[in-house]
Amino acid sequence: MKRRVYPLVLALVLMVFFCACGGYDAEKSTIFVDKDGTVTETSVEKMDQSYYSESELESFITEEIAEFQSTEGTVEETGYEMEDGTATLTLTYSNWKTYADFNRRIFYTGTVVKAQAEGFDFDTTFTKTEDGTTAAVDEVLEIPERKIVVLETSIGVNIKVPGRILYVSDHVTTDEKDKGLATVEKSKNESMTELAYIIYK
Fold first, then answer.
1. Rounded-to-integer distance, Cα 4 and Cα 57, Å
2. CATH of 1-105, one of 3.30.70, 3.90.25, 3.40.1350, 3.40.50
3. At 96, is the secondary structure helix, strand, or coil?
4. CA-to-CA distance for 98 and 120, rounded, in angstroms?
5. Does the pLDDT value for residue 76 go beyond 50?
C-alpha cells in the first residue's frame, strides 16, 4: 500500500471552508467539537497554484481518505474549494479517535475523568477564564464529568466547543465574546510535544 503522506503534505493544503458550524464562522483553521462526539476540522491556507491545481489537490484528498482504514470510525470530506489561491476544505470525523489516527496527532475530547484514564496527566499551568487567575490542578479536576479537549500544540488552531470554557492551559487563549471559542498557539519548541488543555461545561 502507498505510504500516506498526509501529515507532511496535506497539512499544507487542507485548510477549510469559511463555513458556519455551531453558530461560528471559521476564517482560520478551526476544529469544531460537537455534542455527539463528531469532530469537524476546518482550515484555510494560501497555496501556490504554480505547484498545485485544484483538480490535483482534490484528487489527493480523495485518495488519502479512501486509503485511510480505521476500526474506530470514518472520515468524510464535506467541502472543498480552491479560490484566489486559497485552498479550503472541511473534513468530518465520526469521533476523536478517528481524528487523531487520520492526522497522526495527539487529540482527545470527552470527560476529564476519561482523559485521565487515557493517560493525560494535566501536568501544566491552568488559567481560570472567568477572572484570568491561576487555577490549581485539583480545582480543574474537581468535577470529573466536565468536558475537555486535549491536543498537541504542533499546529496553531481555533477550537470551538459546545459549551462555556472554564479553564485553559498554557498555549491557549479564549475569546472575550464567544465563551466557547479558544485559540491554541503553535509551540515554538519543535523538539518536544506539548499539550494544550481546554475544560468546559
1. 15
2. 3.30.70
3. helix
4. 18
5. yes
